[in-house]
Structure formats: C-alpha cells, structure tokens
Amino acid sequence: MKREEVKENLKWKTTDVFKDAEEFDAALDAVSKKVDFSAYEGKLGDKETLLKCLKEMDEADGDLEKLDVYAYMLKDLDTRDQTAAAMMARVEDVIVAYSASTSFITPELTALPEEYLAETIKDPRFSDYDYMLARILKGKSHVLSKETENVLALGGKVYGGFHDIFTMIDNADMPFPEIEHNGEKIRVTHGTYSVCMQSEDRELREKAFKAYYNAYISLINTISATYIGSVNKDVFMAKARKYDGCLGMALENEDVDRKVYENLLESVNEGLPVLHRYIKDRKNILGVKELHMYDVYTPLVENADIKLGYEEAFELVKKGLAPLGQDYINTLQKAHDEGWIDVEETEGKRSGAYSISVYKLPHPYVLLNYKPTSHDVFTIAHELGHAMHSFKSESVQPKAKADYRIFVAEVASTVNEVLLLKYLLKTEKDVRLKKYLCSYYMDMIRTTLFRQTMFAEFEYIAHDAAEKGIPVTKDYLCEKYLGLNEKYYGKDIVSDEEIAYEWARIPHFYSAFYVYKYATGIVSAISIAERIYNEGEKAVKDYFGFLSAGGSTDPVSILKLARVDLTKKDAFKVAMKSFEETLDEFEKL
C-alpha cells in the first residue's frame, strides 16, 4: 500500500512535533548554539553554578531529543527517504558535540566531597536532581583515580568488542544451512528458523532445528572464545571497580536490590513442577511418543485466531482495558483520533512495532504494521501500554526524572496484554478460541518467565565460575546449559544434544545480567493485573502512581507504589499461580 492511500486518521500527525522542515532547521540551528558547556567545567562545586548548569542541560537535552525523534520518525515512515537520513545525521553531529561538551559533568560531580553532595541532595532547589545526585554519591566508592578512570575509558571500544564480534559471527559469517523438504529447498536463517519452529509439519521442524544448531556448532570454538572473553571482561571490570562480583556490579548500576535476583531464581525453581506439567500436556496433545525441543513452539490449538480489522481490534482493546478507568480509555481514544498511531504497512515503512516518546514531544507516538491476527491485536494493547507509561510519567515528572529504567520498561505493556487476555477469556464463547487464548498466555509466561530465568541462571553460573577461578571452557558451558535445560523442561521432553549449544546463539548474553529484567517485568505485570481485577479502583490508583513515577527513584521502590515488592516472594507466587490456573482451565477445556 502506498502512503497516500492510507486514511489520515491512521497516520502519524508529525506536524505536532514540527510544522515543516523549515521549523526543524530553525530549532536545530538554535540548539546547536546551546551545547557548549565548557564554561562550567571546574565550577560545579558552587551550588548556584551547578543548578544553572543542570537546568541548561535539561533544556538542551530536551531540544535534541525532540529533533532526533522527529528525524527518526520520518525515516521509519519511509526508510528510503534520504532527506530524513540527512536530518538524522545533522542531529547526530550536534548530539556528539553536546556529549563531548558535557562529558566532564559526571566525573566532576563524583569527585566532589561527600558532604557537599549530601547537602545538595537535601537542598529543595535540587529536588529535580536529588535522585541523580544520590546515585552519584552512592557510586563514589567504585570510582577510581583520575588516571585509572582515563585508562579504563580508553578501553571502552575494546570492552564492547565482544558483542560486536558475536554480531558479525551471528549475522555476517553464520553459514546458514539449506535443507530440502517436500522437494523444496529452504535456507534456514534466523527468520525462517522461527517460522519453521511454529510449523505443524514435525519433519520440517526437526530438519530445521538440527541444521540451524549445526551451523552454530561449526563455529562453536570461535563463539566460545568470544563469550568467555566477554565474561572475563566483566570479571575484570567488577574487580577493578571494587564490586563484590559481576552480578553485584550489574545490579548496582541498575539500582536493584540483590534480593530481587535471588527471589527470581528461587521462585522459578520452586515453580518448575507446573512447567513440567505443561510440558507433559504438550506431549499428550501433540500425540508424540517422544517430545523434542523442536516441538515446544508449534501451536497447541490449530486454526484459532482473532481476525479483526484495525477499528474492531482497537475497540476490543479498549474493552479489555476498561478496568483502568474512563480517563485511561479517553486518552486511548485521543491517541486513536489525533494522529498518535501510524497503523498501516506501507511501501518503505520500517517493519515491526514500537512506542516512542521524549519529554518535549506533545504526546507519545506508536508505530504499527497492523494485520488482522491475534498477535497484532495484542500488539496494539502492548504498545499503548508503553505509550501511556511515558504519557503519565512525562505529565507529572520533571525532565530529569521522567525517563523510567529498563527494569520497569515492559511492565505497563504487559499489564495491558494480561488485562486484555483476561477479558477475552471471560467473554469468549468459542471453546477453540478460549483454548488458544489459554495457550497464548501460557506460552507468554513460559518464554518470558521460565526461559529468561533459565538464561539468567546460566549467566550466573558462567560468571561465578570465572570469579572463582574455575576454567570456563566450551565443554563447561555446554554441560551446564544442558543440565539447566533438563532441569527446567523436565523428564517428559528429550533435551536433544543440539540444545546444549543454545547459549551460543543468545545475543543478550553479551550484556551481562540483562535478561532477568524480562522475567521480573512479567512477574510484576501479572501481579498488578491480578490485583486490578480483584481490588478494582484502589489497585488502579496505585498502578497509576507507578506509571507517573518515571525514574524518580530506584525501580524496585517505584514498583512498590503499585504494591509489587520484588524483595519478597509474593509477586512471584502470584505469577506462578496465574500460570497454574490457566493450565487448569486449559486442561478442562
């Protein structure tokens, strides 16, 4: 479809950001004159000077974000648009200059006396910046001498090199295999592998699975050396910065209590019998003598889908999210009516879906490529969850506290999905569709909670071994991963020998201790959604407090506003119970 064929109400209203290129150029020219902060260097020990500097940074940063997002949006609407690409490049040049000019801020603040920072945090004039300054104060013990910091900074590109090497292996150098099936040759790439794993044709799944993993096995020595190098880099940085280990370094950088990570691993391990029951059901439903790892993604319910046009789907989403109150629904309708959402797939448009927002935008924007499938209906709810999180946060918080951390980034989006799913399960009469919805929800929990926790446990094992001086080798990694797979999936599935190498294809492992946030995110979302259903308005009010908190304090405390305390096991138990109850319903159906 050509863009001019799309109805205006289904397209982004980019003029809300800038009326035209001329206004964009004027704004870029204005901010480019405000990105030199060198006059403040060496003077941040004076409170008046510091406050003036921070406020001017907020202003410049906000202007640059707005310019950057505008160019980014135009480029995504038509990836062939060279004018938009040039706009992005011009903004990037100014951002680089701004980053270089302000690079002294954090080191200089960190070097200030503890007493000065503590006093400044308590000063009401610095209320917008108290959490940022508190984080700097808390991290002072891990900041080294100026000379040492300079040396570590020089190694920045080296430290990031392991991820870059894996990216090249995984995309440029991977010998994607070709299989033959029913007289047709199929090249098993990352994309086609995913499609094959969901096929109803078991022979195709097995062929694709074995071929795909054999491609990784053929490069396993190189991948192992790359990952082990990444782990050793983490160990080096943790020791150099005087953390108690790699996990401690990662959690402190996110300002997350270690108890959260421990609770996640313990709770999921305690809940494994329910996952084993699900696996046994899958084996019985598929009617196979042996269930294999290439059987875990194929649908359990055939020919069931929610096939709705966009307008019907949007109305369905509103019904599902009705427990959040009329004001929330009115804002969703405003997003629908006033050009917040770009709906249709058009020539040159970026694929996928996302929500984007920065402080100086008039409102969030959501990109879709809508098709009449169940997945796309849930995608509407998911992306609107992100949008509403940003909208509420930016409506309440100052610029310095508006951005929420990655740790809580998927909570609001998943709350919306769970609420929609609960509505559908309650109102749907078609038994086949109800079975499909149960299966959809269980797979969401299985892949996000159980699978990502298994990844998190593997990361912990690898780093713990390196810290203790245990040789981390290819064989060690494969042995540990296979053991985890057998523990998590249970005795009713064959842990194929190829699955021992699955760790070798996970890009997130090169950002150590990142994946656990997906698991804690879905735990938090399920707990919040369940409470909204059970307690109504009071729970909604608490949830809106969470949405409006942005990044005003640490993310674990922000979740507590919605009555989710991840330093205790209650929320984890709620998520496990939700999985078990859905499995009960599925078995009855």
Task: Report on the architecture of this protein.
The chain has 26 helices and 5 strands. The chain has a domain at 3-143: Up-down Bundle (Butyryl-CoA Dehydrogenase, subunit A, domain 3), CATH 1.20.140.70. Helix 5 (114-122) packs antiparallel against helix 6 (130-138), helix 21 (431-467) runs antiparallel to helix 22 and helix 21 crosses helix 23. The protein is globular. A 3-stranded mixed β-sheet has the order 3-5-4, covered by helices on one side. Strands 1-2 form a two-stranded antiparallel ribbon. The protein has 589 residues and is mostly helical. The mean pLDDT is 95.
State the main characteristics.
589 residues, mainly alpha, Butyryl-CoA Dehydrogenase, subunit A, domain 3, three-stranded mixed sheet, globular
Main sheet characteristics: 3 strands, mixed
Based on the coordinates given, report the CATH architecture of the domain at 3-143.
Up-down Bundle
Q: List the total number of helices.
A: 26
CATH superfamily of the domain at 3-143: Oligopeptidase f, N-terminal domain
Assembly state = single chain
- In helices, the fraction of residues equals 55-70%
Mean pLDDT rating: 95
Distance between the termini: 41 Å
Please provide the count of β strands: 5
Strand content is: under 5%
Gyration radius over CA: 25 Å
Sheet/helix structural class: mainly alpha
Strand numbers in spatial order across the main sheet: 3-5-4
State the gist of this model.
With 589 residues, the chain is mainly α. It has helices at residues 21-32, 47-77, 82-101, 105-111, 114-122, 130-138, 146-154, 156-159, 161-173, 190-197, 202-217, 220-240, 246-254, 258-270, 272-286, 310-320, 326-337, 374-396, 399-402, 411-427, 431-467, 474-489, 516-535, 537-548, 555-560, 570-588, and strands at 178-181, 184-187, 341-342, 354-356, 365-367.
